[in-house]
Amino acid sequence: MTTDDINDSLSRFVQQLDELSNLAEAGLLKSERLHETKCNIEDQLLQMSSQLDERSRLTIEKQIPKLRNMPKSGIFLQKEDALKQIAPLKLTVQNLIEELKVRQRYSELAGLIRDGEMVNRDKEQRAREYVKQKNIIVERLVSDELIKRNSKYGELIIQANEVQFFLTTLISLRSFTQTKKIKDRLERAQMGQLIHQLEICAKNQTEADLATSLEKYKEARDALAHKMFSVEKLTPQECEGAIELGRQILEMLKHAIKT
């Protein structure tokens, strides 16, 4: 088998184990299906181990049991039990994939291989660090795609525009100077500036509290607008909370406009 063949096989094993996990999550994984798939993957890992480096061979040897117990057939496995059995094998396969990536990068760095082993420790370390950083980037790309498909983020963006519109309207109504210039200036103002103006012209404690809620809402809006590619990004749960807060703020703004 070539390196590409081995990598393709390992990727296929991950996909098969993910399919088992999906069945387990739904409570639909039977004991015989899990046993058959695991044994098949383990057998193929043993076959390809002779073509791998010592580290990978030992990883496979450590994972695969010497004896296999035949499970009772026709039994639907509990979700937790099934996932517990799947996880170690999947982790082993993922580690093998990563080791192949390290060796590929090591070769790109012109590292010396003797008896199938990497002997230049500096270049090996550089290769491992490269693969680690690349994995982080790839995981972030996958996460970002999920973010884009989450309609809640789009809902928050639209809602934030609505909040700013009614906040601008309220402040404009409180202004003694009802000119087009003032209205244009308010429409170009950022939310933080508008909140500060509301704090100044608040008529009562309720409106002062509204300004505080707007500050909290602005933090979520800013995280969505400016920090979605950092560790401070807005999670889907935080987005749900911000949307609910936005609904309350809109009700308060509309009430203040009417009174």
In short:
This protein has a two-stranded antiparallel sheet.
- Low-pLDDT stretches are none
- Distance, first to last CA: 77 Å
Order of SSEs: HHHHEEHHHHHH
Question: What is the domain total for the residues?
Answer: 2
Helix content: over 70%
Overall pLDDT: 86
Global morphology: elongated
Q: What percent strand?
A: under 5%
Radius of gyration: 29 Å
Counted beta strands: 2
Structure classification: mainly alpha
* Largest sheet: spatial strand order: 1-2
3D architecture notes:
This protein folds into 2 domains: 3-149, no CATH class; 151-258. Helix content is 77%, strand content 2%. The chain is built from 10 helices and 2 strands. It has helices at residues 3-25, 31-49, 54-63, 79-108, 121-149, 151-174, 180-188, 191-201, 205-226, 236-258; strands spanning 113-114, 117-118. A hairpin with a 2-residue loop joins strand 1 and strand 2. Helix 1 packs antiparallel against helix 4 and helix 6 (151-174) crosses helix 9. The longest helix has 30 residues, at 79-108.
Per-chain topology:
Blueprint: H1 3-25, H2 31-49, H3 54-63, H4 79-108, E1 113-114, E2 117-118, H5 121-149, H6 151-174, H7 180-188, H8 191-201, H9 205-226, H10 236-258
Antiparallel strand pairs: 1-2
Helix pairs in contact: 1-2, 1-4, 2-3, 3-4, 4-5, 6-7, 6-8, 6-9, 6-10, 8-9, 9-10
